[in-house]
Specification:
The chain is mostly helical and 88 residues long. It has 2 domains: 33 residues; 43 residues, no CATH class. Helices cover 64% and strands 5% of the residues. It has 2 helices and 2 strands. The protein has a two-stranded antiparallel ribbon with strand order 1-2.
């Protein structure tokens, strides 16, 4: 094999490696981008979930009572409490 053929072969290999490197860099950016742009609901621990459950049970019980004519009392307004959540 002559020197020119070896150089051409190495240049082709370099181009192929550059394309692979570029592909891997894009994959890494997409993966790291997904982690940074986490969206959706925040996760609740068991105590917070239980608190929401009890609050919603009271809310729906009051709604049912009002619909049956048992009371014209409106459910209490939702307010923020010291823990950072919403309280009835």
């Amino acid at each position: 094999m002559d020197l020119e053929g070896i150089i051409n072969q190495l240049l082709e290999e370099r181009e192929r490696l550059n394309e692979l490197i570029h592909t891997f860099e894009l994959m890494q950016q997409r993966k790291s981008g997904r982690v940074k742009s986490k969206r959706g609901r925040k996760e609740m621990n068991d105590a917070d979930r239980q608190e929401v459950s009890l609050r919603m049970r009271r809310y729906w019980a009051n709604r049912k009572k009002a619909a049956e004519g048992g009371s014209s009392e409106e459910p209490p307004p939702l307010t923020m409490h010291a823990g950072g959540g919403i309280a009835a």
